[in-house]
Amino acid sequence: MPNVSLPPKQSRFVEEYLLDLNATQAAIRAGYSTKTAYRTGADLLKKPQVLQLLDQHKTERSRRVQMDADHVLQRLGEIDEMDVVDILDDDGRVLPIKQWPKVWRQTISGIEVTEMADGSGEGRQAVGLLKKIRWPDKQKNLEMVGRHVYVQAWKERHELSGGVTLTHEEALELLS
Q1: On the chain, which terminus has fewer CB atoms closer than 10 Å, C or N?
Q2: CA dihedral over 5, 9, 14, 18, signed as positive or negative
Q3: For 78-125, what is each residue's pLDDT tens digit?
Q4: Domain boundaries in the chain?
Q5: Whole-angstrom Cα distance, residue 164 to residue 3?
Q6: CA-to-CA distance for 164 and 158, rounded, in angstroms?
């Protein structure tokens, strides 16, 4: 697979980083000091050979799972188009799950069903069901779309003399 040669600790960092894309945690799991893991992780992500190995691993993973940025963006678009009317009948009752559109069945975060009753003991009678359906966070979904396509609506940028453009975080780091 990848033909980039790195010291064992850096190779381990790459493997760990691919698990959750968290450089600090990856550095810790790879055996770097907990006290300096934040800085170490950031430094490692600036090394060309580390970036090259990460790219190779990501490319191979995309091939393996047959997913790419287009697939992810398509799914995000489907989620954005979800409409609660698609899972309700004409009287506003929730349809049986088998009748829901596929995107709903694949995307909801959870369903909670609670039986509602009147009375207690032997005189208790079921009067209905309370159904709570948790669907994806639409705002987070749009933020993900905005990062995927060149909208960059949530990235604050600063212009410096010489035409260099930095993100807000990069500018703060330079100023500190």
Answers
A1: C
A2: positive
A3: 888 888 899 899 998 889 889 999 988 888 888 888 888 888 888 888
A4: 1-66, 83-135, 137-176
A5: 33
A6: 8
With a CB cutoff of 8 Å and minimum separation 6, the contacts of 29 are 12, 16
Kindly report the number of other CB atoms within 10 A of residue 52's CB atom. Answer: 15
Report in angstroms the alpha-carbon separations of 146 from 22, 49, 62, 103, 116: 21, 29, 21, 20, 42
The DSSP output letter for 127 is E
Task: Give the three-state DSSP class for 16.
Answer: helix
Range 1-66 has CATH code 1.10.630.10: no
Q: Alpha carbon 51 to chain centroid distance?
A: 21
pLDDT digits (tens, 9 = 90+) for 32-71: 999 999 999 999 999 999 999 999 988 888 788 777 778 7
Cα–Cα dist 87/22, whole Å: 37
Q: How many residues does the chain have?
A: 176
